[in-house]
Amino acid sequence: MRPAYVVRRIGFYVLICAITLFFAVPMLWIASAPFDASPGLGVHWPDWTLENVRKTLDHPYAMHSMVNSLLICVTTAVAVTAFAALASYALSRVRIPGRDALLYGLLLLSSVVTGTAAMVPIFVMMYQLGLIDSRFGVALVMTGGLLPAAIFILKDFVDAVPKSYEESARVFGASTGQILRDVVLPVARPGLATIMVWAFVNSWGNFLVPFLLIRSIEKQPGAVLMQTLTDEGGSVNLQVLPVFSLLFSIPVVVLYLLVNSRYGFRFHGGIKS
Amino acid sequence: MTSATAPARDRAPARDVAGLGVGRALGFVAPAMLLIGAFLVFPALWTIYIGITNYRLTGVEAVSPSIVGLSNYTKALNDALFHNALWLTLLFVLGSAIIGQNILGFTLAWVLRRTRPVVRRTVEAFTLLAWILPSTVVAYLWVAFFDRDGGTLNGILGTPGTAWLIDYPMACLVVFNTWRGTAFSMMLYSSALQAVPPSQLESARMVGASGWQTLRDIVFPHIRGHVLTNTLLISLWTANDFSPFLLTKGGPNHESETVPVYIYNVALQGGELGYSSAISFLLLIANLLVSLVYLRLLRRRS
User: Fold this and answer.
1) Residue A39 or B222, more confident
2) Which of A196, B20, B98, B224 would be a feasible disulfide site paired with A81, CB 3.0-4.6 Å?
3) In degrees rounded to 5, what are phi and psi of residue B159?
4) Chain B residues inside the 8 Å CB shell of A106
């Protein structure tokens, strides 16, 4: 009994350590290489320096691509949140004819029409509309792609908000506009914040859409610039890429931690484009 | 995309408490529907049309494409590279989603369920980090990890000079995607495991059931539905995943060219927009079938 127990415990911790190492080891590089005087592709204890950070800040496109990412993702996040909020409120509170079919269709759309399955027609469409190489065009495509899922998540959220607030406001004679602005909006704020973060994180990590639609390097968002720099290779890029990877990851991690601590649940972000 | 995990639970009658009215409600829904219609539904339907033309990126067919009927589809039937892409996608889904993410995710959920919070949080933090980091960053991390000269893997194994991404591209992709996506299965299974009645686990221990027996006879019947829906969802995501492009670009010599990468290469490298649309349409149909099964399973469970 006793030795068997000890063996089991040891096996248990060996398993946990092995799994943790599997997840951690590929990540170590992003912690060591940015501050290493001679950065390579392998992980080793760095010869501390901030030279790479300076190189990255001086890079002609690196910081610029962060601004591009920010432009695209803020536009997308705001548009997704605004349009999804309007639609989900109406779908939750008003019985519009054909509502259930519409909701079912949206649910299907969110998983069926993926970026990869739609890349060719989207490319052709944007090409014919003259929206190739336009950051606004990228934000539009991302907004369209994220909206069905956003409407669904928000509708679940609005459904859970008790209707009694709106009813009592109505009893006291508030107009529809007042109810929406002063009652519904404040109550729905956590849901809206979550959706905004979710949309931001999703578009921040999206590689395929800007990769298809953006041509010039000065308009590339960070996700695409990383690929451009990787393809170029060279020792300068080996100094820039680690720092850039780190900087580019920070917003996602910070936002994730924020949502997780504020609202206590895990949003499903960053895995699919 | 994720909302697919949140099924419509609402069966309560909608009451128009703010006095919106059907007219204004339609106005609220319209902008979202316009965007979804223009950038999601229209492209999906348009693949059908482009798929029966010989439309190309450049040349005569770029200016005036003509209808070629189903010849793109008959071409796909005989295209060895397309068959290769299908086979590799199948391997990728089977290895990294159905086996890799599923089993590792369940193992983590099961093992971490009763460990000390410090241990659990540490392990979860790394798995979640792998999941939330931007795809270009993780792809670069793994390119560095697998690198021939000075990559960490060669350092650990003492095999300098092995070009993993060139010699074993599919195995690398399977490991990469298992690493990338396990967090989702882990979270899903940890919440599913909470639905297993502790009293049943307790009685299993009292009668001296082994760990394997407990899993098979008590845990599994409770979470069977979750295993099915989870497998469908991660398979769908994996089959549509574009990150293999970031690691290998489909190479060397088409050895890791999964369907998404193949579509990209045919469309934008080869310029055959018509043919790649036909393949995209096949992918859409496959997605539709999987999603329909998935939604049916969800509905039956609730």
Assistant:
1) B222
2) A196
3) -120, 65
4) 36
What whole-number distance in Å separates Cα of residue A224 and Cα of residue B37? Answer: 27
Handedness of CA A262, B178, A199, A106 (dihedral sign): negative
Burial code (b: 16+ CB inside 10 Å, e: under 16) for B191-202 equals ebbeebeeeeee
Q: Is the pLDDT of residue B11 over 60?
A: no
- Write down the pLDDT at residue A235: 65
Together in a domain, A44 and A178: no
Q: Which long-range contacts does A258-261 make (Cβ < 8 Å, 24+ apart)?
A: A258/A197, A259/A193, A259/A194, A259/A197
ipTM computed for the complex: 0.88
Contact (Cβ atoms closer than 8 angstroms) between residue A144 and residue B36: yes
Same domain, A137 and A218: yes
Residue from the list A41, A106, A170 with its beta carbon closest to the beta carbon of B17: A170
pLDDT, one tens digit per residue, over B205-228 is 888 888 888 888 889 888 988 899
User: Among A239-243, B15-19, B191-195, which is the least confidently predicted range?
Assistant: B15-19
Q: Please count the residue pairs, one from chain A and one from chain B, whose beta carbons lie less than 8 angstroms apart.
A: 339
Q: Which residue has the tokens 């905004």?
A: A196
Distance from C-alpha of B248 to C-alpha of B175, rounded to nearest angstrom: 14
Q: Which residue has the tokens 């399977």?
A: B174
- A152 and A204 part of one domain: yes
Please give the CATH architecture assigned to the domain spanning B79-301.
Orthogonal Bundle (1.10)
Nearest CA in chain A to B123: A20
Tell whether B205 lies on the interface with A, counting CB pairs under 8 A: no
The Cα–Cα gap between B244 and B170 comes to 9
* Nearest CA-CA distance, residue B80 and chain A, Å: 20
Is A215 a member of any domain? yes
Q: Mean pLDDT score of chain B, rounded to an integer?
A: 88
Domain residues for the domain of A26 are 2-49
pTM: 0.89
Please name the residue of chain B whose CA is at the shortest distance from the CA of residue A8: B211
